[in-house]
Amino acid sequence: MAFTSTSFRRACRRIADPARVEHVVVTSLASGALALVDPNRRSARGRVALRAASAVLSGFVVWADMRRTRPASETLGIAAASVGATLAFADLGDVIDGRMQRALVRGGVPHPRLALALGTTALTAVTQTAAERLAPSDPSDDGVDVDAPDDETLVDVPEAVREIVAALLARADGWGASELRAQLDAARAVEYAHEDDPAFVPALGFAVPSDLPLAVPGDARFPVIGRFTTPAGLDVDAYLMVQEGHLGVLALAPAEHEDGFAGLDELEHWPASDELTFLVETPSGVRPLEIDVETGPEAAPPSADAR
Description:
Layout (H helix, E strand, L loop, with lengths): L1 H14 L5 H15 L8 H23 L5 H17 L1 H17 L5 H23 L17 E4 L3 H12 L6 H10 L1 E5 L10 E5 L12 E2 L2 E6 L5 E9 L2 E9 L22 E6 L2 E8 L3 E4 L8
Antiparallel strand pairs: 1-2, 2-3, 3-7, 4-6, 5-6, 5-8, 6-7, 8-9, 9-10
Helix pairs in contact: 2-3, 2-6, 3-4, 5-6, 7-8
């Protein structure tokens, strides 16, 4: 569950970042979905709901854009003003919407609402993309891709985590391992603020300087896995996710996927790297990994039990 929560947080961060394609896609589709609804055929309550949704979307877009360069209080004030302006001009917007729909009908367009929705989606995407490209760069940017909201902070990578990641990367020469090792040297850890819940979280994200070489493939699970057994007898895998060419997340999950995340709540800390048995993904499945000091890593026969 904890890893799912971490993934959800990361998705929310990207949606709230105008520089991310996720933000453009979500806001464009939301705008198109709202345009698909004919306000002039809604009941009074339906029009209120539609206007409220449009106002919230407008406020969100303004907030996401302004929060990068303005104080939080000022950003919220401007976003609130945007919500108010959207509601204030809602009647005029409905009139314009009706005229555009009638013009499309007169022009022989068979599905005018769909045409309006597609046009709104495309216009929103083009406008946001152009605005982001024209936006001035932040001179205070230090080259570190923080990608973290206010409820997260960057801390030094815990030594146990650093040792696990280093051990995984040391057992492969391909899959961007050398680039990821360089990133690990400069990486910081994303620590989520859980003052009311100090429980161990079996996943940790990384923030990596953006000027370092990227790993290829850019989005993948690193093929070397570290496996250990908990005191309760549960086999758990430590695996590394690569995201956009950077160190993404180190996570723990039961080796048997049908177990879901059952048993992870018993963990209180990361395992030591010398507790791990290393495996590697191959065309014939996951196999134990042997390390030869002269020839390097190689997959052992399925019966081997190599650490």
